[in-house]
Amino acid sequence: MATIPSHSLLLPNPVNLQTAHSFPLKPHLPQSTMITFPTRSSPAMAISRTEGASVSPRVEPESYGITTAEDIRRRDREAKESKRLRDTWRKIQGEDDWAGLMDPMDPVLRSELIRYGEMAQACYDAFDFDPFSKYCGSCRFTRKKFFDSLGIFDSGYEVARYLYATSNINLPNFFSKSRWSKVWSKNANWMGYVAVSDDDEAKRRRLGRRDIAIAWRGTVTQLEWIADLKDFLKPVSGNGFRCPDPTVKAESGFLDLYTDKDTTCNFSKFSAREQVLTEVKRLVERYGDEEDDLSITVTGHSLGGALAVLSAYDVAEMGLNRTRGGKVVPVTAFTYGGPRVGNIRFKERMEELGVKVLRVVNEHDVVPKSPGLFLNERAPHALKKLAGGLPWCYCHVGEKLALDHQNSPFLKSSVDLSTAHNLEALLHLLDGYHGKGQRFVLSSGRDPALVNKASDFLKDHFMVPPNWRQDANKGMVRNTEGRWIQPDRIRAEDHHAPDIHHLLTQLQYPSQLL
Amino acid sequence: MATIPSHSLLLPNPVNLQTAHSFPLKPHLPQSTMITFPTRSSPAMAISRTEGASVSPRVEPESYGITTAEDIRRRDREAKESKRLRDTWRKIQGEDDWAGLMDPMDPVLRSELIRYGEMAQACYDAFDFDPFSKYCGSCRFTRKKFFDSLGIFDSGYEVARYLYATSNINLPNFFSKSRWSKVWSKNANWMGYVAVSDDDEAKRRRLGRRDIAIAWRGTVTQLEWIADLKDFLKPVSGNGFRCPDPTVKAESGFLDLYTDKDTTCNFSKFSAREQVLTEVKRLVERYGDEEDDLSITVTGHSLGGALAVLSAYDVAEMGLNRTRGGKVVPVTAFTYGGPRVGNIRFKERMEELGVKVLRVVNEHDVVPKSPGLFLNERAPHALKKLAGGLPWCYCHVGEKLALDHQNSPFLKSSVDLSTAHNLEALLHLLDGYHGKGQRFVLSSGRDPALVNKASDFLKDHFMVPPNWRQDANKGMVRNTEGRWIQPDRIRAEDHHAPDIHHLLTQLQYPSQLL
After folding, report:
1. Residue by residue, what is the 3-state secondary structure of A219-276?
2. Do A69 and B482 touch (CB under 8 A)?
3. Does position A49 have pLDDT exceeding 90, yes or no?
């Protein structure tokens, strides 16, 4: 049963979200006596909470040092929820293919899906998209302060490695490039990170295991990269993957993005694949023999979802999810608005390897319908069999959690393609989802204003500006000379790819990697 | 003679402006050992200083509390310069129509033109242009913290009153309106302020007098309001002005903007005219009998320049520039990129009244050529005489200081109309101007990066992002509930128009005002 308490109320009336108070028992907070501006309306919306709600969205550096009422409530929720996650984490990670957990929606699964979705969202919030920044295409924060810089002070994770890819591949509309000539790298883009849950005792107890999390960046608004895809499946074995079966195929564009490198570039002289595999190997070796169990969770939105599926498959195919003691580490991919990645054999091979994939999608999003819009797993069986050998028969992997933005009373019903693809909106939809046909009720009260960070999706009467996430003065600051500058940002030791040659040679099939 | 020292160097090479060090004697500051990012280039540009430079541009709240090297140099310059301004302020204010002060350019005049230009620029920096803000069209800061909020800590002025105009006039493209329904005012826009120089002893000594400054806001980018002008001159006397001569005429759109009111609106129930006149009257009465002399200086850019001319004229025509003791207070308008305002009789009447106008223009800007592009003061004498009675014969007032953006090696040569009209660019051009045919040399080293605050005017190789002035997260902040909101901003007591009925009735010609 979905745990919707009977007192739940969702009344997204035409009032500013700022007047939404989260304590149903205290609907009428006293108005500030200092502020007498006439547009301050009285509270008119109560957002109820169910148990097992998500962590609070703490994603902005501006919130440094503020312990909010939301923080306190979140801690309370987490305390209640932690026991369940500790006991059920293997099921939450998909041990039983999430049977019985999605309809009605399990509150712990919902909470975890939002948490991993926020780890994917962090890739957007941290990415420098500004073509007029000389750091365009890089991560705006140093690795060690990654979560803190985003205002996520209690993530419970430490970033172990940043991931880069070379932009010298055939997805010109995916990569961000600076308009300036002097830039941090001409050929690399930051693509995400590998993080590992830290030693904090409370967090370990909550998770129930040590977690290695991999997050891949996708695209927020521009979907042109879909058109760039060659719509061509090629055998993964030709790209250095361990798989000996040439009928296991994946989209060539994703494979290129994952495996290409640029030996002249400090950041992408190793492929994204080499970067992630060596780091997973290192972390599994380091933590695999601990008393705690271990899990590997890969997350990504959009094109990042495709990389999540590819890399989850790759880790398992390489056997990196086995500890020296022989324990098998479960590998799970949570993807959000992800496209199809490979063919039916690719899907079958992932199932053989026990890699679990849960795909969260908005039913109105076209990206999960790509590539293979016309020939995919939904085609009649006979046709699929016939087309199985053809290069363009794509197939989704794993389980789907289908959401519908038209069920949320907060969101505009009719929006453009990139808006329907928005990740923050998916997290909002998750928060309100309780099962098929169930009424939309926010579980955690996760701030709906976050939806508009990089979209124009909230209904106008909530009065949240569209695309409001932006840096003060585009990151320009005054230096000690009194001049406005783009500050030097990146410390080389945090960003340059460490030399991983020695790690690559230690992989089980080094010849396929090098 | 222009005071360009022989060691002056201006080498705007293709390097980031941030590497420009301002001490020619210390061109090679040690690089930070923390920052090893490879794009940090060595200093390659030295900007020399001449005496009599402008105050430093301190226009951003982010600079709170930072005393920069620029601050120290500025204080040194100001100390040297203050003696001259104290002795010559009447000439700087136009007593002799700036004869001999513009070619070669007098450094004190240059500095004062930049200073008053920055007071006009403050109207843009403080204005809420965002249609998705419920405060769109208002001033973002409270009156008492106006300059501080802009990072201008040593302005030496206190804002005495905010000025508003009703948007219910026929200049639809001039006014900013919120897209939301709940807004601070449906019918008013903030238009500027009246400030008065404060009691700080050093500042008083520097200025040589008490100054009442009036700054009017114009438009930064959108020039559509020019097309809205009816291109129709009407007698000022019909609009409540004291002038008994019906042949003294001004552009009807400017007159409407200046004199219209909306009795249903708290902010514009008195016209901009009534607001400014009553405040000037109050301040002249308060300070007119001090030992110090008094001056009235009106400043404005673009349409704000037109309001500056109109209100300077009006103050003098109303006789508000006479103290109770009978002293005449000089009235000066410094305008930047201002259009023509009235006809030849209007110009003559201003001259009779002794109002001084100095117009700073970029030769490539079309606004100062409007209205009256075809029939103006440059037409042959006979034609002018013939057309004098026609409604569309416009005439500029006062002296012109013509600058040319193509003389600055920092600026793009070919730009669109609104860029050529940019106020920050004019201030930059002032800083480099030394007289007709003189080489462009920055006098104060005023940060060229400021030019791109709201334009794309700097050459690309300086690597300053275009339009970089923006608020963090469009002003959204997290409240104590952890939610992202547009904070309530305006305290009514600072913004609502005070009741000035009693002041209006005290004016010399109350029947014409009420």
Report:
1. CCCCCHHHHHCCCCEEEHHHHCCCCCCCCCEEEHHHHHHHHCCCCCCCCCCCCHHHHH
2. yes
3. no
A182:B16 CB<8 A: yes
**B374-385 CB burial, b ≥16 within 10 A, e <16:** ebbeebeeeebe
Minimal Cβ distance to A68: which of B36, B60, B482: B482
pLDDT value of position A267: 87
Determine contact: B142 vs chain A, CB below 8 A: no
Cis peptide before A43 (omega within 30 of 0): no
Residue B222 exposure: Cα atoms within 13 Å on the Cβ side: 11
Q: Which of A165, A142, A271, A274 is nearest to A217 (CA)?
A: A165
Residues of A in contact with B450 (CB under 8 A): 484
Contact with chain B for residue A60, Cβ under 8 A: yes
Is residue B476 domain-resident? yes
pLDDT value for B62: 34
Contact A483 B18 (CB under 8 A): yes
pLDDT on residue B3: 40
Residue B53 lies in a domain: no
**So what's the pLDDT on residue A221?**
62
d(CA B342, CA B350): 10
Q: What is the largest CA-CA distance in chain A?
A: 73
Number of structural domains (chain B) is 1
Which residue of B473, B481, B492 is in closest CB contact with A468?
B473
pTM, to two decimals: 0.81
Q: How far away is chain A from the Cα of B414, in angstroms, using its nearest Cα?
A: 19
Q: Is A365 a catalytic residue?
A: yes
d(CA A340, CA A205): 35
Mean pLDDT of A50-67: 35
Measured distance CA(A109)–CA(B500) in Å, rounded: 64
Cα radius of gyration (chain B) = 23
Q: Report the C-alpha gap between B155 and B59 in whole angstroms.
A: 11
Identify the CATH number of the domain in which residue B342 sits.
3.40.50.1820
Considering CB atoms only, which of A184, A466, A470 is closest to B39?
Answer: A184
pLDDT of residue A500: 77
Q: A480 and B66: CB-CB below 8 Å?
A: yes
Nearest chain A residue to B34, by CA: A491
ipTM of the complex as predicted = 0.80
Q: Are B486 and A465 an interchain contact pair (Cβ–Cβ within 8 Å)?
A: yes
pLDDT under 50: residue ranges of chain B? 1-66, 493, 509-514
B471, A472: Cβ pair inside 8 Å? yes
Identify the closest residue of chain A to B18 by CA–CA distance.
Answer: A485
Is A436 within the bounds of a domain? Answer: yes
Q: Which of the residues A21, A405, A421, A434 is marked catalytic? A: A421
- Mean pLDDT, all residues of chain A: 81
Question: Residue A283 is part of which domain span?
Answer: 69-508
Q: Determine, for residues B484 and A41 on separate chains, whether the beta-carbon distance falls below 8 Å.
A: no
- Identity of the amino acid at B30: P
Q: Report the C-alpha gap between A401 and A98 in whole angstroms.
A: 10
Any B CB within 8 A of A474 CB = yes
* Cβ–Cβ under 8 Å, residues A339 and A216: no
Residue with tokens 């809420």: B128
The Cα–Cα gap between B362 and B128 comes to 26
> Residue B400 is inside which H or E element, if any?
strand B399-403
Residue A451 resides in a domain: yes
Q: How confident is the model at residue A365 (pLDDT cuts 50, 70, 90)?
A: very high
- Hey, is the C-beta of B59 within 8 angstroms of any chain A C-beta? no
Closest chain B CA to residue A471: B472
Phi, psi of A130 (to 5 degrees): -75, 115
Q: Looking at the partner chain, which of B68, B464, B473 has a beta carbon nearest the beta carbon of A469?
A: B473
